[in-house]
């Protein structure tokens, strides 16, 4: 079921050093540092926020694995963390990339960096949460203020390792902040399209997400690198020779592209090898792909995969993984 009343608020990228990532986005001219979010200005008279975390669930990670923790916490460190969770203080650094708010979280001990969740503003958090809980999902965490739910995280990580969170509709102060941020003169005219998710079993992933009843899938397609028409975005020849199964679905306005590699080496094989299932790329539609590609290459992000399918727009994937939580940036030619 297409969720027309779900409005994307942000996607969250968790890295070990958020300053490095923010600096990377700004120095590459992809985004603008916009500081912490201001949602709590609209709830400042309600007292401190409380944070609940379901400790029975695996911690948020940028992939399903393989991957070994960088650090093993001591019992003392775990107790300190539990005390922090009892009284929640919202901390984030954010980057505006085109019309996308990229929330950047820092966790120095996270085993695998990457995109962890997408947050949607919905008319009724309780109703949307209950629907997913009835489908067998678990509540990962909840931020409340008095009797108001400010954000719920629902565990939808079974296939694709990405969870969904809900917030209430945007109110006055936050809307003013959003409008101000999006008017920044240095922002690129990029329109957020969606995420590409590396998956091991496409059929099981589609069955699971259809069961959640929050996505509308298109018919299955195939990526065959040999069938893509060449486009003029790079002087370097692309040697990729691979095939993959693909299903694209809409969650609100966001495209979820599930990709199961079949044969040959590819960026999606690399993503599965390095993080397990999880978000491999974030995609934007642009007015002039060739112009944007020249800028990206000049800024040190080489093209790793590009072309024009028979029934679709030209695209190019850029290697921003080293400083971007192991996430590629994909640009798609707008109509």
From TrEMBL:
Record keyword Metal-binding present: yes
Annotated Basic and acidic residues bias: 70-85
Region of interest (Disordered), residue spans: 52-85
Single Gene Ontology BP annotation: L-methylmalonyl-CoA metabolic process
Family matches, as InterPro entries: Glyas_Bleomycin-R_OHBP_Dase, Glyas_Fos-R_dOase_dom, MMCE/EMCE_epimerase, VOC_core
Gene Ontology molecular functions: metal ion binding; methylmalonyl-CoA epimerase activity
Keywords of this entry: Metal-binding
Gene3D superfamilies the UniProt entry points to: 2,3-Dihydroxybiphenyl 1,2-Dioxygenase, domain 1
SUPFAM superfamilies: Glyoxalase/Bleomycin resistance protein/Dihydroxybiphenyl dioxygenase (SSF54593)
Taxonomy of the source species: unclassified sequences, metagenomes, ecological metagenomes
Residue ranges constituting the VOC domain according to the UniProt record: 191-334
Name recorded for this polypeptide: VOC domain-containing protein
